[in-house]
Design goal:
This protein is α+β, with helices and mostly antiparallel strands. It has helices spanning 2-12, 17-24, 28-36, 43-53, 57-60, 79-90, 93-111; strands at 71-72, 75-76, 119-123, 126-132, 138-142.
Length: 143
């Protein structure tokens, strides 16, 4: 459970809820609520916790570890890339699409090329494909 892991990490680091809260920029009430399972941290707090404890967001969220090494184009993912994927999964579909669109825009600005990578995922009863189309336009289909 997230709250138990958070308390364990905080105790190992020998910091109080107040000290942790101050270090990551939240109220000590938030930390207490997280540890008791009353609420969960949002994106910004999750990133701050991950950095503070120097562990992946996936580990904080206790996501199952897939067997084998995660790769993209046969290159192992870095810890940061794995963390981004874990955080992306926490977003609602609208915010997830915005994040992908933003990354696509940064890619296009950095390379001067239109992206040619599509992301496909399933949410509930619909399949969504979004990404730049091969013709340079933007493609977003919800079926």
């Amino acid at each position: 459970m997230f709250g138990d892991l958070l308390k364990e990490l905080r105790t190992q680091k020998k910091v109080s809820q107040t000290e942790l809260a101050r270090a990551i920029g939240v109220s000590n009430g938030n930390v207490g609520d997280w540890e008791r399972g009353r609420s969960k941290p949002g994106y910004d707090a999750l990133v701050a916790l991950s950095r503070y404890f120097e562990i992946s967001a996936g580990r904080l969220l206790e996501l199952p570890v897939a067997s084998g090494e995660l790769t993209c184009d046969d290159v192992p993912l870095t810890q940061m890339e794995s963390d981004v994927i874990a955080m992306l999964r926490l977003l609602n579909p609208h915010d997830r699409k915005n994040a992908v669109d933003f990354i696509t825009m940064l890619y296009e600005q950095a390379t001067g090329e239109k992206g040619s990578i599509y992301s496909t995922y399933t949410e509930g009863n619909f399949k969504q494909t979004s990404g730049p189309a091969a013709d340079g336009g933007s493609k977003s289909v919800i079926a």
